Amino acid sequence: MKFKLSEDEVKLLKILKKSGGIASVDRIALEMELTSDKVAALALNMSLKDLLSLKTEEDSVITLTDEGLRYAKLGLPERRIVDQAKAKRILSISELANLEDWEKAIGLAWLKKKAWGTVKAGKVEVSGEAIKGVDEKLIELIASEGRVYVSNLPSELREAIDVLKERRLIKIEKSSTRFISLSKIGEEALKGEIEILEEVSRLTRELIISGRWRNVVFKKYNVALPSYRIPIGRLSFVREVLDYIRQVWVEMGFIEMEGPILEICLWNYDALYVPQDHPARDLQDTFYVKTPKFGRLLNQDLVEKVKNTHESGWSTGSTGWGYHWDLEESKKTLLRTHTTCLSARTLATLRDAELPAKFFAVSKVFRNEKPDRTHLCEFYQTEGIVVDENANMKHLIGYLKEFFKRLGFPDARFRPAYFPYTEPSLEVEVYYPSIDKWIELAGAGILRPEVVKPLLGREIPVLAWGLGPGRMIMLNYNLKDMRELAMNDLDLLRNAPVWIG
Amino acid sequence: MPVIRVSLRDFERLVGLALPIGRLRSELPMIGLGWERDDSEGFEVEVFPNRPDMLSPEGLARAYKGFIGLEKGMPHYIVKSSSINVNVDRDICEVRPYSVFAVVKNIPMDEEVLKSIIQLQEKLHISYCRNRRKASIGLHDLDKFKPPVRYTVKVSDFKFKPLDYDREITIKEILERHPKGVEYGHILAGFNKYPIIEDSEGLVLSMPPIINSDYTKVDVKTRNIFIDCTGLDWKTVSSVLNIMVTSLAERGGEVYKVKVFYPFETPFGIVFDSPDLKVQEVKLSLDFVNKILGEKLTMEEALELLCRMRYDAIECSRGDILVKVPAYRVDIMHPIDLVEDIAIAYGYDRIKPEIPKVFTSGGESYLERFSSKVRLIMVGLGFQEVITDILTNPHDLFTAMRVKPEPVVELENPKTVEYTVCRSWLMPCLMKILSRNRHREYPQRIFEVDDVVVLDENSETGARNVRKLAAVSTHSEADYAEIRAVVDTLLKILDVDFCINSGEHPSFIDGRIGFIEATTGENLGFLGEIHPEVLENFGLENPSVGFEINLECIMRLKGVGRKP
Questions:
Q1: DSSP state, A433?
Q2: Which member of B407, B411, B462 has the closest CB to residue A287?
Q3: Segment (H or E) for B121
Q4: What letter does residue A286 receive in the DSSP assignment?
Q5: How far apart, in whole angstroms, are the C-alpha atoms of residue A169 and residue A159?
Q6: Taking CA A366 as the corner, what is the angle to CA A363 and CA A262, rounded to the nearest 5 degrees?
């Protein structure tokens, strides 16, 4: 059998063979001049080819304490006493040299305990040979190796561990050691024929077309290292949400409406039965326009109906607002304050044959606000209308439930509200599990007869609802300041998670 | 929308029930009130502008008692006769012509009641009375002056002691120095005579709509109140008076009418009794109710629900209901308003959702569909989309771009200098975004597909939207070749045949600006290396290149319609 191995693999097998078939990772790393991690990775890969096996052993490692280190250099105190006493056979304690006072006490005690001699009347008398003990041998071994593993010790030396531990000359700590052992296949490989493979870092076109890739091994990468940033192109996260909303409307059978950003009061307010002295029409809330200051009223018939409706209800069955409606006021230009002007324009051109029909808009609207944490002077709004002879409030709630379910809010509830152009009106609240709160998200209602009849020519219940997606986007992306929606911070744009819906 | 504060103890007293706050928190919003907050003392609710009758705890309790079925039907208020007359002078008709009056006696006044009366007056002023312009209310201690009362005019050096003042000052001084005069003086601007209400001895009650006098001040010891309500609109003044009067009657006050003598014909005649708590009658068909709600309410159910909303309702002919609307309800213009009230009494939460099985086809507009496609191409070319403000200012739009200002849509009443005009091209907005992102990682390549607004005399509103695409790339290596490659690739994918002509544009480096012309001769836009002075103006330090294209021109070339 022929083995294809890299140089490092061969080297490792040889070291194992030399060390009797087993060696620790650390030891091999030392010999191969590689880091332990690299050796472990190499060995792991080789173990997959059954060339060797890996195991981790729990072991205890012994090192000398400071006192132990001192004795390793000078000898145990009892050994030093015996050596001095041997020369004279009897030695007075006061004559002992090279021992600290505390060492003398220890030395004399152990001299007696080891029966190397006796102490009487301040004199030491040696008896016997005072043979070198296993404790001394173990200290020597640890001193020469720096540290020893309990499992590596000959059984004779292990006997000394307890005594030395008791004398606080050694420290024992738990450690785990990774061992590599040569397998049968590994041994065969060493005996058999080995083809050394080249290690390459990059797969090249040349390697592929020449087929040489078969005779190389690929250098292993650290696949966990972090990467660099790709300078990508993306849609804005705001766009992702707007597109998503647009898609929901289309799925539900709504047709998109468009219209001018610069509007006239007729479409933005008057046609929606907002009285001309309504606070929303104040300079405080609406952006009026200096150039051009007035637009033109193209549909005189509609203007007449709107005027009559405001003043006395026209033929809608309403009392009207009961004030003098000013024609000039309705020509004034403004930046549209809501998308409802698009609905008004749509109703005004809708023909009976086109019914039932549904329309939607997703568009920018404007309010005269100084931008702050909770306000913007321009923002997106979306709304839809259902023009259906048979529409009713049950349908409205049905549509709303379905719409908000598709927007990702399976829990929606409704309560009474007020808007000048709808009756009944309702407020939509949806449940946010992430913050465990009901959030006011949208307004809805059935357009008032005073709105519908002048525009459409007859009274039909027109269902309508709308919302500003800003709040939804802020909650989803955890933004605290509304201005971040318009800031276009490239970090946020590049890194915002994709909107799943 | 106005928010009113209600003491829980007072509200319980008015309703006559112990009311846990949790119950009110869930029930009041279902009547059509916005729950703002609550604490141990009471709660605050937002009152919708169509229901000024609920701007007081009394009005709120009146509606709530009906909603929970405690008191049903229209409240009947007895109006007794008094001998008090009010004479209106002819001169007033130019300044603040309309006025109505009432007296309410034996009010069980205490701190809470006083607070609630003042709150109602204030909240009516700011909402329904349009900051006192349409109408204003004056409350006076009836026992502190001597009727008959005269509604007249005085000149600016006329003196009296305004509320909470210790000395007399002239009308002129009030208008110039008194905080209320400064705040509301504009309502009387342009007149040289000012409305004054005074008693038989010339003691001033009030100077509508600015301030009351100190002489007839209402305090916690007041039992009998004289109310004036003046303004520019009959309907508003009488509605406001009715709301005030019925609120006080809910407290247990006794309503007395006064006789008003006018020098000219009014909708109530030359001499009329005030207040006029006239009941409005509206005919409502049960079929209409059920058609709008989609429910199958029986006549009995409908009548019961109307009674719970404090109407009197009877079946007047088969399938038709005659509804009597109390004088304090100012929002009933059309039977549809009664239908909403029936829905509220029925409970919005009880209406079962239903989706009709009706076919309609949906679709995006061609403009949006086309815009989406262009955005995807730009994204594929490595550009990051931005969505910038349509509002900008002439400095960013022209000066910083080294371009001569041209007429654009300009705001009448901007709140900040930052936003004064609508943009007529996109590139300045992109430059602004780059200048905000100077410290973000490079290269920066951004684009936008959105509307600009251009003046157009032929359009209904005097301007029209134009959908455009602009892109800018900024980094140390940015050059004409890069942006030319982008434009070439984009237009190739859009299948537009074009050529690039040289020309001049102050925003770009001379000789590095190209104009994109369709082979049919239409000008589509331009591309080039942005002038270093423009870069300096936006604080940019890297070479930048960009282009701007009119997408509507391309749609026309490609024959893409604008309607779905």
A1: T
A2: B411
A3: helix B111-126
A4: S
A5: 15
A6: 75
* Nearest CB neighbour to B360, from listed A287, A358, A397: A358
The answer to whether A230 touches A495, Cβ cutoff 8 Å, is: no
User: Residues near A436 by Cβ (< 8 Å), separated by ≥ 6?
Assistant: none
For residue B352, the tally of other CB atoms under 10 A from its CB is 9
* Contact status, residue A448 vs residue B334, Cβ threshold 8 Å: yes
Which chain B residues are Cβ-neighbours of A460 within 8 angstroms? none
Domains and CATH numbers, chain A: 2-57+176-218 (1.10.10.10), 64-169 (no CATH), 237-495 (3.30.930.10)
Residues 391-450 of A with CB under 8 A from B: 391-395, 397-402, 413-418, 423-426, 446, 448-450
CB A442 within 8 A of CB A428: yes
Whether chain B has a CB inside 8 Å of the CB on A359: the answer is no
Full set of structural domains in chain B with CATH: 3-67 (3.30.56.10), 79-274 (3.50.40.10), 280-350 (3.30.56.10), 366-558 (3.30.930.10)
- Condensed to tens digits (0 to 9), the pLDDT of residues B438-464 reads 999 999 999 999 999 999 999 999 999
- The owner of tokens 């006098």 is B213
pLDDT tens sequence across B501-545 = 999 999 999 999 999 999 999 999 999 999 999 999 999 999 999
- The answer to whether the Cβ–Cβ distance between B31 and A356 falls below 8 Å is no
Q: Which residue has the tokens 């296949």?
A: A185
DSSP type of residue B301 = H
Is there a contact between A251 and B443 if contact means CB atoms under 8 Å apart? no
Which of B358, B365, B459 has the CB atom closest to A356's CB atom? B358
Residue A432 has pLDDT above 80, yes or no: yes
From CA A143, how far away is CA A378, in angstroms rounded? 80
Residue B332's CB: how many other CB atoms inside 10 A? 20
Chain B residues lying within 8 Å of A261, measured CB to CB = 390, 422, 451, 453, 463, 465
SS3 B368: helix
Q: How far lies A417's CA from each of A490, B34, B564, in Å?
A: 39, 8, 33
Minimum mean pLDDT among A17-31, B14-28, B190-204, B422-436: which range? A17-31
pLDDT of residue A414: 96
Q: Is A253 on the interface with B (CB under 8 A)?
A: yes
Q: Do A294 and B462 touch (CB under 8 A)?
A: yes
Between A193 and B43, whose confidence is greater? Answer: B43
* Contact state of A254 with B407 under an 8 Å Cβ cutoff: no
Facing residue for B391 by CB, picked from A313, A319, A377? A377
Rounded to the nearest angstrom, the minimum Cα separation between B251 and chain A is 27
Residue of A nearest to B357 (CA): A395
Amino acid found at A229 = R
Q: Which residues of A touch B422 (CB under 8 A)?
A: 261-262, 335
- Report the pLDDT value the prediction gives residue B319, as an integer from 0 to 100: 94
Q: Give phi and psi for A327, each to the nearest 5.
A: -60, -45
Residue ranges of alpha helices (H) inside B32-108 are 57-67, 92-95
Distance CA(B341)–CA(B32), nearest Å, equals 10
Phi, psi of B169 (to 5 degrees): -135, 165
How far A364 CA lies from chain B's nearest CA (Å)?
Answer: 9
What DSSP string runs through A71-124? Answer: HHHH--HHHHHHHHHHHHSEEEGGG--S--HHHHHHHHHHHHHTTSEEEETTEE
- Six-digit token pair at B26? 């869930």
Which residue from A260, A320, A391 is facing B461, i.e. has the nearest CB? A260
Taking only residues 454 to 473 of chain A, the set having a beta carbon closer than 8 angstroms to any beta carbon of chain B reads: 461
Chain B: nearest CA to A361, how far in angstroms?
9
Cα-based distances in Å from B359 to A186, A254, A360, A386, A459: 75, 11, 16, 12, 21
Neighbour tally for A200: CB within 10 Å: 15
